[in-house]
Amino acid sequence: MKDLINLLLIDDNQEFLESLDDLFRDHNYTIRSVESVKAAEKVLENSEVDAIISDYNLIDSTGIELLSKIRKEGKNIPFILISGNVTTELVFAGLRLGAFEILDKPLDFEILEQTVLHAINCGIQQRNLLERIRTKVAPEDAKMMLHLLKTPTMLRFANYDRIRLHQLTKDQAG
User: Fold this and answer.
1) Around Cβ 23, how many Cβ atoms within 10 Å?
2) What distance in Å separates the CA atoms of residue 52 and residue 79, rounded to the nearest whole number?
3) How far apart are alpha carbons 146 and 144 in whole angstroms?
4) Per-residue pLDDT tens over the stretch 86-118
5) Which range of residues forms the domain containing residue 101?
6) What is the mean pLDDT of residues 139-144?
7) 45-54, 125-134, 139-148 — which is least confidently predicted?
8) Which of 9, 43, 81, 127 could disulfide-link 33, Cβ–Cβ 3.0 to 4.6 Å?
């Protein structure tokens, strides 16, 4: 098992990137900071990444579009989306694509640290499980099991849906 955790930080605000960089370097993470989706794609082509923290609005695209592309390529890298304007639609879009979490700016750095740590641990557990499945299960069973691994994201999505429905009902009653 490797010693360092590799984080990819994506935001078009250089000061914000520097503050995130400082926060995670204190935890002995290897950090790659970029300001665009195009630069992030180059990093992903050439480097191993354990987790991604991306702003929604970027200079050349959106974090959702990057997440969609990553998932279409079959990569299951934990992806934390941040935005200064988290809407219900953004939460649903992120969760549908398998975002690990969607956080609102201004960020509580303690919550962000805990979220990243949890995302990395979940990613490690998922990679270990995938490796065990590949080596110990028949290919046709492995395909079904890999499909079932999506269930936690679906359950999280269903929970957000219940919260939204409750809020809409409450707003209509009030």
Assistant:
1) 18
2) 5
3) 5
4) 888 998 899 888 899 999 988 888 999 999 988
5) 6-173
6) 70
7) 139-148
8) 9
Query: Is 1 within the bounds of a domain?
Result: no
Q: Which three-class secondary structure state does DSSP give residue 29?
A: coil
For residues 22 and 20, give the distance between their C-alpha atoms in angstroms, rounded to a whole number.
5
Cα angle vertex 65, ends 149, 55, to 5°? 95
* Residue 56, φ and ψ in degrees, nearest 5: -75, -55
The total of structural domains in the chain comes to 1
Decide: pTM greater than 0.85.
no
Q: In the chain, which ranges are continuous DSSP H helix?
A: 14-25, 37-46, 63-72, 88-96, 109-136, 139-148, 151-173
Q: Grade residue 4 by pLDDT with cuts at 50, 70 and 90.
A: confident
